[in-house]
Specification:
The chain is α/β, with parallel strands linked by helices. Helix content is 39%, strand content 15%. The longest helix has 24 residues. The structure holds uridine-5'-diphosphate (UDP). One of its GO terms (biological process) is monocarboxylic acid metabolic process.
Length: 455
């Protein structure tokens, strides 16, 4: 490899589930000699508790720099403002960095939610790499919407797309069904593909072995498409990077949950979490609470501070059987031998983490891409069970209880456990030396060095 410094800007959409995998990818390419600067809106940066010390940060404007003064009225308002001022702010930053010695920008790795970053990169004649934070199946669905081949709302009960299993409405992205009330979310995810043919690279946080068929299909459309995942801290995979135990952006350093798990028997605890954004209504929280109280297993339940008031009044947050915390180091929890089952909302990061750490799941998808992630986990990768909802879209306590006992106790659980252990091995292999994702990451890095020597 050449001695020249390559400088990449890495620009995630400002949300936990986006910054985590992109930061992780940054650590990997940094390990291969690339200089990385993480770029985030100032308003988001002000509330970021901490970042790994090896990562340099620069900020851009999203239009809400003085966050105390002007707050976005809605998500749509936020996007409109950010999209309006983001391009110029990013261009200003690149100009500024280009003027500083050893900071010339060679490449922009941008979250595909923000396609305008690619236009800015191209204005500067530098490499633009799209980073897709959702899986290949989900991207294929949104790509079909972009191409006008799937139009909301749909009449068909079963949706058939190339290289994907047949999908029911409950497997489809929720934004498809809310489009008529509010098109903001579907427009955002479909716009990922508005200029993608101009990208030099399209990187995706998944691994080839996990989504082979749709992977082959995608490569036929974009020859510069590569899987680089699972993008999770290295300690839990092939241990290439020393002491890489967390993503590095978490606010809470509490080890209470891990300490609590330490004296529990192997596979005796149910871990329950609905991610950083998921909100349950009071009725659903009540059903989960009743189930956990009666299910006969220990439980560790993450209930965000914003959700706490929805807990039943008499529900004990710390008891013989269970512990409720506002946040936990999820990777360490999933890696703990006391965990026997993960009741999850099926966010893509949580899905990859469950697979990579070998934990079987009870799938309780809420919105966005979670329906398809649940479908894949249950019917394709066969690592769990889906808790069905009633006509009010609520998972009742008896349903949840029987799913948990199926994972914790039944004969079927052995088969599920075997499957999840196979995925765990394949995930580690994908990012290990000569693994598919590792080779793709190296190919990407080499192309950056090669590009810089011929320019
Ligand atoms: N997470 C965590 N502690 C918690 C809950 C979540 O560290 O108590 C992390 C989890 O490991 C994952 C991320 O938050 O990396 C959630 O991302 P995901 O895509 O699963 O869901 P989202 O929050 O985007 O809905």
């Amino acid at each position: 490899m050449e001695n020249k410094t390559i400088h990449c800007l890495v620009i995630p959409f400002p949300a936990h589930g986006h910054i985590n995998p992109m930061l992780q990818f940054s650590k990997l390419i940094q390990n291969e000699g690339v200089k990385v600067t993480l770029v985030t809106p100032l308003s988001y940066y002000k509330n970021l508790p901490k970042l790994p010390s090896s990562i340099t940060v620069e900020t851009i404007s999203d239009g809400f720099d003085q966050s105390g003064l002007t707050l976005p009225k809605s998500f749509k308002h936020y996007l409109n403002q950010f999209w309006e001022v983001g391009s110029e702010s990013l261009a200003y930053l690149i100009n500024n960095l280009n003027g500083r010695s050893n900071n010339h920008v060679d490449c922009v790795i941008y979250d595909s939610f923000m396609p305008w970053c690619l236009d800015v990169a191209k204005r500067f004649g530098i490499i633009g790499a799209a980073f897709l934070t959702q899986n290949l199946a989900m991207n294929s669905i949104y790509y079909h919407v972009h191409m006008g081949k799937l139009k909301p709302p749909f009449a068909e009960q079963v949706i058939s797309l190339p290289a994907l299993p047949q999908l029911l409405h409950r497997d489809m992205p929720s934004f498809y069904f809310t489009y008529e009330q509010d098109p903001t979310f579907l427009d955002l995810v479909v716009a990922q593909f508005s200029n993608i043919e101009k990208a030099d690279w399209i990187l995706c946080n998944s691994f080839f072995e996990l989504e082979k068929e749709v992977g082959d299909w995608t490569m036929k459309i974009w020859s510069n498409f590569r899987t680089i995942g699972p993008s999770i801290p290295n300690t839990f995979l092939d241990k290439k990077i020393k002491d890489d135990e967390d993503y590095g952006v978490s606010e809470f350093k509490s080890e209470e949950s891990v300490e609590w798990l330490n004296n529990k028997a192997k596979r005796s605890v149910v871990y329950v979490s609905f991610g950083s954004l998921g909100a349950l209504n009071e009725e659903q929280i009540e059903e989960v609470a009743q189930c956990l109280k009666d299910c006969g297993s220990y439980f560790l339940w993450v209930v965000k501070t914003s959700e706490e008031t929805k807990l039943p009044k008499d529900f004990e947050k710390k008891s013989e059987n269970g512990l409720v915390v506002a946040w936990c180091p999820q990777l360490k929890v999933l890696a703990h031998e006391a965990i026997g089952c993960f009741v999850t909302h099926c966010g893509w990061n949580s899905t990859l983490e469950a697979l990579s750490l070998g934990v079987p799941v009870v799938a309780m998808p809420l919105w966005s891409d979670q329906g398809i992630n649940a479908k894949l986990m249950v019917d394709v990768w066969k690592v769990g069970i889906r808790a069905s909802v009633d006509e009010k879209e609520i998972v009742r306590k008896e349903t949840l209880k029987s799913c948990i006992s199926e994972i914790m106790e039944s004969d079927k659980s052995k088969e599920i456990m075997n499957n999840v252990m196979q995925w765990k091995n394949l995930a580690a292999r994908a990012v290990g030396e000569d693994g598919s994702s590792y080779k793709n990451m190296i190919e990407f890095v080499n192309s950056l060095f090669h590009h810089s020597t011929i320019n």
